[in-house]
Amino acid sequence: MPVLKRRRSRRRAIGPLVAVGIIGALLLFLLIGGIAHISSSSGPFHVSVNRSFGAQATVITEQSNATGAALNSLLGDMSGLARPELQSQMDQLADASERTADQADGLTPPAPSPDVGSGFAAVFDQRAQAVATLRHSIDGLLQMAPLPVAGAATTTSAAAPSAPLSAAAATAGLSAASGLATRSDAGYAGVRSAFAAGAGHVLLPRSVWVDPPAQWASGALATVVDEVSTSPSLAIDHQLALTAVRLDPAVVPSPPGSTPGTAVLPPTQQLVVTVVLTNQGNVNERPTTSLTLQSTKGGAPVVRTQIAVVVAGGARALVFSALPVAYAQTYTLSVVVTPPPGQVAGALLNEALTVYVSPGTPKGVPAG
């Protein structure tokens, strides 16, 4: 083949390859340009998200710092407080830390970049757990319970004293709270560094709960437990009393010739008894109250029992279900309240009544 023809043939073979190369280079250029455009357009978005998140996170962190400062102050002061004041302060700290944890959890989505939103929320969840653990430990040591929340439904279990804890168990509980607080401080430091290094370079406030660290050390916490256990202002004072026994139907004037001291009832076939207990002590009580009705003619007695919490400084009315009675019969009604362990004798915790049901037909019921 002549040289010219070979060259023309070679050009025809190279032509499609050059075209493919040019198209490929064009596509690569477009791809790189698209990525650069996406990167440049997403940068301001991440900066905006981080700064918005950081502004809200700053408010939450400052709230947490105030709670932490109050908690550190309480650790040093609790042995000198009275029981109601100590309980109130612990309840307030628990409520504040729970609200802060809820607010932190509500900040995401959208998550900041880098994705530290979940880490931020975990910090405040640990702190809420730390306060709850501390309160449970001190409540158990002193046999206290969280105060009823205003406006909330009151239940027997909510006001019941915490299960008693030994000094060793309470110390272990405080150490667990210390561990949670320490981990939360480390977690927050990591989140703070990530924000500072991320888009927008957001600088969150410093936040340390374990400050000073010596106060949260195991030896210092054991000392707190010893001081709380032996504090005169935190000593348990049991003052439970039976203050009233009310009958329904109510007692009527005794007719001439009645036995002195007998409570006379109008004609009825059932008796409802209400027992009022008063607690002037500084610890919630959960006594057993028993009621027994026995006819003077003999037969099996009717017994009713209730177990109910009587909060410190409060009173509780216990209404017993109706007791069957008969006309023209005399009964002995006795009420016995189990005294709290450690209560000094002297308070009235039992009462006995002689009850006479008048003969005849109850009002409104036809005779015969």
Description:
The strands form two sheets. This protein has a five-stranded mixed β-sheet with strand order 2-9-8-4-5, with no helix packed on it. The protein folds into two domains: 10-234, no CATH class; 240-357, Immunoglobulin-like, CATH 2.60.40. The model is unreliable at 1-11, 20-41 and 153-158 (pLDDT under 50). It has helices spanning 3-77, 83-105, 117-142, 156-159, 167-197, 218-230; strands at 240-248, 262-265, 270-279, 288-295, 302-307, 315-319, 323-324, 330-337, 350-357. The protein is elongated, with a radius of gyration of 38 Å. Helix content is 47%, strand content 16%. It is built from six helices and nine strands. It is α+β, with helices and mostly antiparallel strands and 368 residues long. The longest helix has 75 residues, at 3-77. α2 (83-105) packs antiparallel against α3 and α5 packs across α6 (218-230).
Summarize this, please?
It is built from 6 helices and 9 strands. The chain is α+β, with helices and mostly antiparallel strands. Helix 1 runs antiparallel to helix 2, helix 3 packs antiparallel against helix 5 and helix 5 crosses helix 6.
Q: Average pLDDT value? A: 84
Q: Give me the oligomer status.
A: single chain
- Helix and strand content put the structural class at alpha+beta
Order of helices and strands: HHHHHHEEEEEEEEE
Strand content: 15-25%
- Would you report the number of β strands? 9
